[in-house]
Amino acid sequence: MQTVHRQLADKNEATESVTRRIAKQLPAKIIIWSFLLFVLVFTLFPVLISVLGSLKTNAEVTAGGTFFPQEWKFSNYLEAWRQADFARFSWNSLFISTMTTVIALLISSMAGYAINRREFPGKRFYMIVQASTMFISIGAVVLRPQFELIVAMNLNASLWGIILILLGSHAAVFFMLIGFYGSIPRELDEAATIDGCSFYGVFFRIILPLLRPGLAVGALFQFRNAWNEYIIPLVFTMTNPKMQTLTVGLANLRYGYNAATQTHLMMAGACISLLPILIVYVFANRSFMQVTAGSVKG
């Protein structure tokens, strides 16, 4: 009987302990969740305004005063697609963004592997050069030299000229992948080398598959940057409108045939341009939380 009473007392004491712990943690959790909810609303509110604005008439968007459309104009998307020639411009943006992402990931992954696994003359200088491209921005000053360089290479009539220029902004992916390389044990390289694998064989057969989470994250950022680029495609496609990207074509929706501002069509075009980024994020998000821990048994 005493044993039963003791067990009940222990249960009551444990329950009270859990209750006190929850009571202490509750204010902190309320603050954290309130902050996260505020950030969520603050982030999604402009997107919601754009989506609703894309379904209004131009007069309703300009006048304001309404949150939901009085008349849902789904035809705005078809009109924006037709006026901005979205089919051609979407293909140009997709080609530029995809090729820039693939080539940048290849260059960054190979350079990061050499930097992380090898010692060679000029290694520190190379790191400084890569870092300088991130922290030193000279903006539009380089547009003219870049354009003259592309013309001299006879790439001004091709999308490859824009791709070549955009590849210069891969330093962020390079440093990101170096961090992922640090989590891959060097014992894998040594074991593969002992088994007869060459330096390139180790990279492509062993390291690259383990680097998929880092490549996915890098692909998301590189694709987003290339997709949203505006100034470089605008400058390099002035003489050839058929090479314009979606961001440049979207800006052309600002004024219609009668020189009136078409805010509703710009919002519809902006919503259309968001879809590829969302699709890439959905696929890349699967790899965000993956780690390489457990690849080597202790």
TrEMBL record:
It comes from the Bacteria. It is found in: Cell membrane. It is a multi-pass membrane protein. PROSITE patterns: ABC_TM1. The keyword Cell membrane applies. InterPro entries: MetI-like (IPR000515), MetI-like_sf (IPR035906). Its main location: membrane. Keywords: Cell membrane, Membrane, Transmembrane, Transmembrane helix, Transport. The chain crosses the membrane at residues 30-52, 94-113, 125-147, 159-181, 202-223, 265-284. Residues 90-284 form the ABC transmembrane type-1 domain. The keyword DNA repair does not apply. Belongs to the binding-protein-dependent transport system permease family. This is Carbohydrate ABC transporter permease. It comes from Paenibacillus agricola.
